[in-house]
Amino acid sequence: MATAALLVPRRKRRSVIPGFGLTMGLTVVWLSFLVLIPLAAVFARSAGLGWGHFVDVGLSDRAMRAYRLSFGGSLAAAAINSVFGLLIAWVLVRYEFPGRRLMSAFVDLPFALPTAVAGIALTAIYADTGWVGRLLPFPVAYKPQGVVVAMVFIGLPFVVRTVEPVLADLGKGIEEAAATLGAGRLTTFWRVILPEIAPALLTGFALAFARAVGEYGSVIFIAGNVPYVSEIAPLLIVTQLEQFDYEGATAIATVMLAASFLMLFVINLIQGRERRRLGQEA
Amino acid sequence: MSRAQHTARAAVGEPGAVRLVLILLALGWLALVILLPLFAVFAQAFARGWSTYRDTIAQPDTLAAIRLTLIVAAIAVPVNTVFGIVMAWTIAKHDFRGKDFFVSLIDLPFSVSPVVAGLCFVLLFGRNGWFGSWLSAHDIQVVFAVPGIVLATLFVTFPFVARELIPLMTAQGRDEEEAALTLGANGWQTFWHVTLPNIRWGLLYGMLLTNARAMGEFGAVSVISGHIRGQTNTMPLQVEVLYNEYNFTGAFAVASLLAGLALVTLVVKTALEWRHREQLAGAGH
Questions:
Q1: Average model confidence (pLDDT) across chain B
Q2: What is the pLDDT at residue B133?
Q3: Is residue A195 domain-resident?
Q4: Is the pLDDT of residue B7 over 60?
Q5: B157–chain A nearest CA distance, Å
Q6: Which of A34, A41, A45 is the closest to B154 by Cβ?
Q7: pLDDT category of residue A278 using cuts at 50, 70 and 90
Q8: Measured between CB atoms, which of A121, A164, A185 is closest to B40?
Q9: Is B119 on the interface with A (CB under 8 A)?
């Protein structure tokens, strides 16, 4: 028996659990019908436009402004979320205080709250007469900065939930070693802790960024939606569709999809590298 | 010597004052970014008193929107639960080449903008779409009708159950199933009596998230629904319609129902995480 096992070390033992054919078949059919064919339709339609026309409508002046706001705003929001997400994760993992569990539960609210609800609530708060808007020296609602406010709201849990488990698993040993060697607390954080959690922080940043780029519901109410100024790319798709400009909508959607796939690839790359690194250490 | 020891002990924690500042900063940010919007929804909804609130909710269009949202969730949640289990069973209980790639495909809807998701189905089933002429010849309406809303909702909620179950079922291994099969149970009995009890809390967690997203989805549904009052408006769309008509109290009244749903979701989710942490693979998604 043992020799037989040694003779075929490379071939995996087939699972004795039944249902592989049936469930695999259903998975492929459902995945194709609901996800792959619909997404392929966007690419196929946009391939039918021809390159020159695709560039004309997909990379028009107005579209480029919209991409700049969508991607630039998402970058700013993800950066803000990285700082405060790390702070919240740190406080949740390291300190005991009354209300800690309640605080942890509320971090997930942006996952549960419908985006349209968040959108109108943020608009009410940041309008010139709103609770926060009236305190600020500059306008937020109906301006590009309003877009960032909405993106900060929806992206926060991604950073907290990605960094939290890594921070919790971080042994106190290396911190003690750093302190024994004479490092101050701040030095220890910058030189020892931050490099350890950097991949998780980067993943959280990328997830928050990716979510913000595609976000629609929470942004459109607070954005003001002025073409060339405060119009995000997903809204431009909707506007084109409402004017029955399917070609324009499809071309912009293709650019957005390509960006999503690129970000998905980058996120997988970071996570794969991190997994290998941890595997080598173990 | 004793000074060095003291330094080492102090160095793995922060001084009390720093600790307090960090906690207050984190709480302050959370209050500003998350609690304030939540509070604003209810404050605005009840700004004109309880009777106005009740009258707004009782409007026929709003009631129709509530009904449609419930119908859509009643279809999307069971369908994606069944397929989520099927996908998790394929991936976690069997070995095959390209499994990682398969898992990324299942996660795909999470990285697609909801608006693009809605557009996909318009391109397929709309008047100028691939199946448009066939559908209109057979008098079937998908776009600007309930079937389109259901499809868009199925798309955006597609990964929730599978993504919760795959890590959980992989971690649980196959020993119990193999034992049951050796003892003479058939595949269905093994699933029903062995696998399902093991994954039930994780499954419930996945269904909860599916339901929250199904009832709250805005972007994808907005593109495909056509915004026909009383017919193809779900609750989030009704919020938008009322808001654009400057009926802010009405918009916030409907929004408060959705915010209530979000709060219930959070409470159940947190309870599941506390009680059944060992059975939740991705607690915190």
A1: 90
A2: 84
A3: yes
A4: no
A5: 11
A6: A34
A7: confident
A8: A121
A9: yes
The pLDDT score that the predictor gives to residue B2 is: 47
Nearest to B123 by CA among A53, A216, A261, A241: A241
Share of chain B above pLDDT 90, in %: 69
- Radius of gyration for chain B, computed over Cα atoms and rounded to the nearest angstrom: 24
pLDDT at position B201 = 93
pLDDT per position as a tens digit, B213-266: 999 999 999 999 988 888 899 999 999 999 999 999 999 999 999 999 999 999
Distance CA A18, CA B182 (A): 12
Looking at residue B161, the DSSP 8-state letter turns out to be H
Instruction: Please tell me the distance in Å from B236's CA to the nearest CA on chain A.
Output: 6
Q: Each residue of B167-199: b (16+ CB within 10 Å) or e?
A: bbbeebebeebbebbeeebebeebbeebbeeeb
- Least CA distance to B238: which residue of chain A? A116
Enter the DSSP assignment of B145.
S
Residues of B in contact with A24 (CB under 8 A): 90, 94, 96
Domains annotated on chain B, with CATH: 1-45 (no CATH), 48-279 (1.10.3720.10)
Interchain pair A185, B14: CB under 8 A: yes
Cβ-defined contact of B181 to A18 (cutoff 8 Å) = yes
CATH assignment at residue A135? 1.10.3720.10
Residues in chain B within 8 Å Cβ distance of A106: 30, 34-35, 266
Number of domains in chain A: 1
The C-alpha of A3 sits at a distance from chain B's nearest C-alpha, in angstroms, of 23
In this predicted model, what pLDDT tens digit does every residue of A226-254 receive, in sequence order? 899 999 999 999 999 989 899 999 999 99
Question: A13: alpha, beta or left, given left = phi > 0 and alpha = psi -120 to 50?
Answer: beta
pLDDT tens digit sequence for A154-188: 999 999 999 999 999 887 888 888 888 888 888 88
Rounded to two decimals, what is the model's pTM? Answer: 0.90
Write the residue in A17, A97, A253 that is nearest to B23 by C-beta. A97
- Which residue matches tokens 């119990």? B176
A33 found inside a domain: no
Q: Do B34 and A95 make contact, defined as CB atoms within 8 angstroms?
A: no
Strand segments, DSSP code E, in chain A are none
Nearest CB to B266; choose among A13, A18, A105: A105
Domain of residue A188: give its range. Answer: 39-281
